[in-house]
């Protein structure tokens, strides 16, 4: 792989001109300064740090307190060499498979327009070639589009046309004042909530038409789907993000949605900070929606400190779907972030209608003008501007009607186009004018067509600037400033020999790439291969863990059903297996800010729970009034779906799976979340629900009150004390992840041992080390450092001895109480295993051989490694 260079944004991008971040530091590499309390700054976001302009751009004030605060979290800029393992931080002993032979159920979650969905269709088809079962989960309106390419489809809800209209005014779902006044926000938040529910269902629900069971083994998603990491956490499976727009912090260029202002000397740090500011703004608008949804999956809420940068914190693999010929990978992007090239589907077989064919043959190559799925406020005005610009430039034109239904009078030099694949059409035009979607941009450049971009929102201005930087077209023309004059000039520039040569040069580079195949390789490279496969049926993913007498086996859904059928194991020893567990932990940089943040969070929780004793009964009262005459609520995207009668074969119960009991001959619908509000007379009346809501809030008040005082605040203080050595460059002890009372007790023991041991010895060791290195001055520094560690490490040891076991006990209690989602996962995995057992795959496998291998593992000394 070639060494990547730092990509600097062209000077034509207004977001960079003359804007640098003010800083009292000597270098942008200073980091890990002690920050203020985290939760305290969250409410300042919209007011102080940024402003959403009427043109849909976000003005990020780098001189705001929030921007300066976020800049303190910016790590030292890493430089990654080209030879590093692209899989990132993985065990050195883990082998890279020569060929991928584990057949996965992959759900691809996509939110956006048809242009956003299309690249993932190409990806899905390529994944199918490797034997994977691929389900594309997106908006209902794209069902035919997805299924026509041989992929499974799952509807997640949401109206893409309505979403695109909103995004024109509010990029990234961050509302402008105009949208707030018009009352659009609640409607869009409700749409996001619906799509989040749909994303989870796409991971565990059977096919809505055929009823064939499906449980995801891995997730691929674009970031605007929002549910990806959370679904992966609930299932304990790998997740991989793919996008056409920069979403990872870099010093090379700012966030595509951000205009930077009040810059100082450090523009690169400003670029890096802009990503965090935009993420924080988005989280402020949707964080509560996401946390409410997480609660339905028995997941703990994510704090406003962790929510905005969750993917980066968890090092979720990220693949960017653009050509490095346009935007090379910045050197401060880690190995788990790839730039692979644009995604192109196989060109469809297309025969143009006679009218289009005749128009193309009637004269010189026309200019294509179209805005695809963009919903324009005034399509008549836009149509008139385009027609006038065509006349001024003296060209022939094909105007795509698109979702805005652009139209005009019949003319010899203009053809109004309906649906037509760009792959075919762009081979027959001289230049293209469009909104700047990544897919349309890529298709035009692949065919060597000079490009004019009229951006509306999102990554469109970014691509417009990239095209202009390569001289393959003019600077982008924002849609609100578009007129017949500047459009005519842009068309004329595209027809110059210089623009044509530049476009041909880009096309030559892009034609050497294979974006889809490279993306699939990146996806495979980032999977935990050794942890993912079944120990018996090695070409199937592991879904269960069987543990007995100190031995552990990873088993696939089918292997479990075969062994159960042959009565080979005790189902009480069977547990859900998580090949890639996700643990979200808040990092506290010092004890003061950590304990303060926890105290503020505790106060908020207690106040909300206390207020809920009044507000939640009132909400139930309002719901009762609006649903008095309602018998039941059903929809295509509800979590309880009607199963197809053709596949409604009953399955036997698992009896017990790690304490999970399932009724015999059940379709497991009893554990699914139902939205049926019908009830027999005298049950579930409004008054009873109001009393229940009040009682629940009272219970929450007690639980959150005691947990905050006994666990959260001591834990935050202990974590802050543990991380103090990082402030002066010392290493931090890792006590392991706390997941239950056992790991909590181990972490507490390690904290006490390391904290007390090192704290009491550092007072002598540090002066000695300092004196050896710097003489008397070093001794003085060592005394100071030793004194600090004496206080912080011993404090960490003593407090950790109580805090970490308390955290573990709290997690164990929560796991025991919040078990509904785990029951659902166990049931649907069992259901799919039964389906596989009765299908062709189950009949082809030698059951006797499976049981023999199982017996061998159980009999052999330490043959099966603990997972």
From TrEMBL:
Ranges where the record places region Disordered: 625-673
SUPFAM superfamilies: UDP-Glycosyltransferase/glycogen phosphorylase (SSF53756)
Domain Glycosyltransferase family 28 N-terminal: 106-254
Organism from which the protein derives: Mollisia scopiformis
GO molecular-function terms, A-Z: sterol 3-beta-glucosyltransferase activity
Keywords associated with the record: Transferase
Name recorded for this polypeptide: Sterol glucosyltransferase
Low complexity composition bias: residue spans: 626-673
Positions of the Erythromycin biosynthesis protein CIII-like C-terminal domain: 412-510
Biological process according to GO: carbohydrate metabolic process
InterPro entries: EryCIII-like_C, Glycosyltransferase_28, GlycoTrans_28_N, UDP_glucos_trans
């Amino acid at each position: 792989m070639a060494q990547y260079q730092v990509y600097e944004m062209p000077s034509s991008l207004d977001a960079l001109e003359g804007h640098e971040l003010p800083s009292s530091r000597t270098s942008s590499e200073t980091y890990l300064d002690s920050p203020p309390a985290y939760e305290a700054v969250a409410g300042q976001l919209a007011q102080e740090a940024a402003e959403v302009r009427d043109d849909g751009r976000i003005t990020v004030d780098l001189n705001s307190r929030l921007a300066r605060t976020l800049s303190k979290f910016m790590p030292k800029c890493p430089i990654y060499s080209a030879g590093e393992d692209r899989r990132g931080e993985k065990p050195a002993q883990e082998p890279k498979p020569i060929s991928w032979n584990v057949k996965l159920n992959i759900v691809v979650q996509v939110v956006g327009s048809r242009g956003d969905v299309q690249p993932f269709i190409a990806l899905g088809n390529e994944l199918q070639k490797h034997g994977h079962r691929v389900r594309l989960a997106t908006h209902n309106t794209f069902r035919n589009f997805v299924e026509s390419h041989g992929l499974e489809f799952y509807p997640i809800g949401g109206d893409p046309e309505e979403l695109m209209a909103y995004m024109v005014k509010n990029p990234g779902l961050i509302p402008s004042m105009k949208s707030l006044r018009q009352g659009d926000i609640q409607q869009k938040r409700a749409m996001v909530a619906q799509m989040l529910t749909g994303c989870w269902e796409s991971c565990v629900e059977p096919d809505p038409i055929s009823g064939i069971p499906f449980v995801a083994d891995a997730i691929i998603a674009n970031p605007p789907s929002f549910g990806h990491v959370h679904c992966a956490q609930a299932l304990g499976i790998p997740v991989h993000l793919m996008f056409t727009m920069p979403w990872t912090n870099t010093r090379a260029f700012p966030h595509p949605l951000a205009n930077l202002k009040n810059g100082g000397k450090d523009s690169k740090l400003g670029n890096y900070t802009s990503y965090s500011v935009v993420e924080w703004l988005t989280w402020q608008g949707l964080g509560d929606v996401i946390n409410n949804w997480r609660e339905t999956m028995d997941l703990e809420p994510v704090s406003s400190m962790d929510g905005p940068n969750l993917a980066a914190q968890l090092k979720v693999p990220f693949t960017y779907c653009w050509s490095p010929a346009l935007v090379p990978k910045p050197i401060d992007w880690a190995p788990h972030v790839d730039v692979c090239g644009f995604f192109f589907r196989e060109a469809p077989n297309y025969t143009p209608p006679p009218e289009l064919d005749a128009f193309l043959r009637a004269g010189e190559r026309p200019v294509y003008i179209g805005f695809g799925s963009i919903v324009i406020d005034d399509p008549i005005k836009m149509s008139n501007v385009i027609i006038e610009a065509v006349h001024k430039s003296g060209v022939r034109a094909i105007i795509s009607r698109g979702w805005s239904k652009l139209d005009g009078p019949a003319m010899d030099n203009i053809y109004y186009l309906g649906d037509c694949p760009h792959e075919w059409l762009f081979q027959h035009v001289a230049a293209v004018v469009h909104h700047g979607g990544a897919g349309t941009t890529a298709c035009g450049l692949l065919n060597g067509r000079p490009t004019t971009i009229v951006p509306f929102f999102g990554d469109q201005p970014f691509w417009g600037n990239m095209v202009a930087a390569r001289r393959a077209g003019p600077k982008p023309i924002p849609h609100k400033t578009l007129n017949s004059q500047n459009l005519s000039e842009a068309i004329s520039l595209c027809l110059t020999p210089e623009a044509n040569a530049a476009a041909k040069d880009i096309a030559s580079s892009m034609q050497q790439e294979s974006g889809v195949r490279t993306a699939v390789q990146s996806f495979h490279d980032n999977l935990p291969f050794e942890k993912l496969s079944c120990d018996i049926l090695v070409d199937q993913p592991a879904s269960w863990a069987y543990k007995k007498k100190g031995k552990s086996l990873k088993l696939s859904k089918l292997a479990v059903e075969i062994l159960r059928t042959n009565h080979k194991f005790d189902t009480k020893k069977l547990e859900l297996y998580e090949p890639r567990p996700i643990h979200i932990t808040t990092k506290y940089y010092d004890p003061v800010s950590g304990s303060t943040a926890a105290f503020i969070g505790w106060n908020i929780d207690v106040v909300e729970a206390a207020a809920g004793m009044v507000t939640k009964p009132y909400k139930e009262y309002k719901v009762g009034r609006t649903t008095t005459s309602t018998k039941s609520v059903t929809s295509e995207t509800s979590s309880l779906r009607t199963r197809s009668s053709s596949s409604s074969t009953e399955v036997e119960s698992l009896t017990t799976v790690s304490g999970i009991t399932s009724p015999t001959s059940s379709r497991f619908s009893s554990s699914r979340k139902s939205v049926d509000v019908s009830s027999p007379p005298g049950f579930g009346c409004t008054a009873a629900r109001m009393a229940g809501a009040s009682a629940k809030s009272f219970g929450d008040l007690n639980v959150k009150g005691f947990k905050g005082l006994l666990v959260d605040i001591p834990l935050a203080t202990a974590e802050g004390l543990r991380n103090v050595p990082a402030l002066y460059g010392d290493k931090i002890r890792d006590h392991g992840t706390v997941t239950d009372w056992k790991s909590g007790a181990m972490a507490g023991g390690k904290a006490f041992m390391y904290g007390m041991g090192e704290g009491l010895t550092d007072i002598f060791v540090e002066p000695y080390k300092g004196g050896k290195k710097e003489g008397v001055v070093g001794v003085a520094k060592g005394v100071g450092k030793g004194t600090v560690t004496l206080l912080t490490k011993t404090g960490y040891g003593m407090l950790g001895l109580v805090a970490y076991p308390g955290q573990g006990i709290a997690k164990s209690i929560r796991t025991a109480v919040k078990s509904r989602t785990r029951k659902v996962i166990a049931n649907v995995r069992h259901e799919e295993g039964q389906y596989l057992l009765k299908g062709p795959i189950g009949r082809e496998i030698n059951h006797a051989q499976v049981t023999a291998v199982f017996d061998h593992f159980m009999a052999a000394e330490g043959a099966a490694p603990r997972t």
